Backbone:
C-alpha cells in the first residue's frame, strides 16, 4: 500500500507550537542538508539568538547578558571529525565528544535522557550525519507513568531529492502541548539550500519564531542563519 507523505509546510502548519526541531533532507538540486530551528512561547524562550562561534559551532545563547540556563542555552551544532552533530540541548556536546572518542553513532546517541522540565518533559533530539546517512536519536518520556527514558534511534539512508525526515519536541493544538511525534517523513519543495531556509522559516508560526539554520556536513562554519526580530 502506498503511504502519502505530507509536505513540510503541511506538517508544521498542523502543529501550533513545534518547539525545537531537527531536519535532515535533500533539496531538488541533490544537496543533502541538515537544519535546526527554535520557536518559543515565553519571553525568555524568545530572547535567544543562534550564532556561529570562532570555533565553527552553532550556539543558542541569550540575546542579552544574563545567567546561563542549561535548558535554553547550549551548543546546537558541532562538527566532530567526519560527523555533523546537531540537536536541541547540551547533549549535542556529549554526543560529539563520544564520537571523538571513537564510538559509532548509535552508541554515541545511547544513554541520553529527556529534559527535567515537568510536566512536558521535553525530548532531547539529536542528529548525527555525514554526507549520505543520518542517525536520529530521541530521548523521550513515557506516555504513561513510567519515569524510565524511552530511547529511539532511527537510521536514515540515502534520500531522493525532495525527501526529508523531521523531529520536533512538541505537538500542539490550540489548547495543549504534548511530546512531539516520534518522527515525520516530509516532502521538501525547496530547489536549493537558500530555498530550504526560506521554506522552513515560512512554515514556522510567525509570532513564535526565534531562529533557524541550514548547514551541510563539513560546512558548519558556513551555515545560513535567520533570526527573528528581538522584542
Residues:
Amino acid at each position: 500500500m502506498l503511504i502519502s507523505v505530507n509536505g513540510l509546510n503541511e506538517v508544521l502548519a498542523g502543529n501550533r507550537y513545534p518547539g525545537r526541531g531537527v531536519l535532515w533532507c535533500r533539496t531538488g538540486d541533490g544537496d543533502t542538508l541538515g537544519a535546526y530551528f527554535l520557536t518559543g512561547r515565553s519571553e525568555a524562550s524568545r530572547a535567544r539568538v543562534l550564532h556561529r562561534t570562532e570555533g565553527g559551532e552553532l550556539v543558542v545563547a541569550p540575546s542579552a547578558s544574563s545567567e546561563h540556563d542549561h535548558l535554553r542555552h547550549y551548543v546546537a551544532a558541532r562538527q566532530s571529525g567526519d560527523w555533523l552533530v546537531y540537536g536541541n540541548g547540551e547533549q549535542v556536546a556529549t554526543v560529539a565528544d563520544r564520537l571523538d572518542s571513537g564510538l559509532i553513532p548509535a552508541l554515541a546517541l545511547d544513554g541520553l535522557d529527556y529534559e527535567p522540565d515537568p510536566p512536558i518533559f521535553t525530548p532531547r533530539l539529536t542528529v548525527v550525519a555525514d554526507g549520505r546517512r543520518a542517525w536520529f536519536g530521541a530521548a523521550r518520556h513515557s506516555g504513561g507513568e513510567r519515569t524510565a527514558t524511552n530511547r529511539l534511534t532511527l537510521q536514515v539512508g540515502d534520500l531522493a531529492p525532495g525527501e526529508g525526515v523531521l523531529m520536533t519536541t512538541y505537538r500542539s493544538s490550540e489548547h495543549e502541548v504534548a511530546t512531539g511525534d516520534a518522527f515525520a517523513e516530509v516532502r521538501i519543495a525547496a530547489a536549493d539550500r537558500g530555498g530550504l531556509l526560506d521554506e522552513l522559516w515560512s512554515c514556522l508560526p510567525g509570532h513564535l519564531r526565534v531562529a533557524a539554520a541550514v548547514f551541510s556536513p563539513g560546512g558548519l562554519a558556513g551555515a545560513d542563519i535567520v533570526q527573528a526580530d528581538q522584542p
Summary: The longest helix spans residues 193-203.
